[in-house]
## 1
Amino acid sequence: MRTKIRELRKLHKLSQEELAEAVGTTRQTITSIEVGKYTASLPLAYKIAHYFGLTIEEVFDFSELEEE
């Protein structure tokens, strides 16, 4: 699943570690989500989107899931 997390982090000048700490997860989890190896749980997706003041749909691209 594609996300805008990396772009949002860069825009807000945040490291993966800083974002992870802010949303209560690990840097490795943020890395895995950014490279598409891991799909965030709904609660984590909400926390990330809420942190940036966005909706889940604005951060995560669900178009691949809709095609299945």
## 2
Amino acid sequence: MNALSLLIILVGVGLNAGGQLLLKAGANALKPLELAWAHPVLSVCRIVFEPHIFAGLVCYVISVGVWLAALSRVPVSVAYPMLSVGYVVNAFAAYYLFGEALSGLKLAGIGVIIIGVVLVARA
């Protein structure tokens, strides 16, 4: 895998991870997420147009385009496992941004993910 392909994959992973973090921030801002059945369209609009959620969805849409560029350059058997890097990014970001726990077992799992991604990238 060349440097450009790796960069494209990492940008796609970053957009995906960022989208997930923005969705979490939006879900936190909405508190308990409830759909008002009396006004479903208004409820959906309230959810979709919450600024963090909207930005997260935009990140996802852009990440699909970036991901297509990555898949046009790299075999899916190499590219797809790289998405696991997103879990690593999100785990640490959730710890810092949302105060989510990072137990020893989670850290061990993150270590296994990193080793697996390195092995797949070198294959």
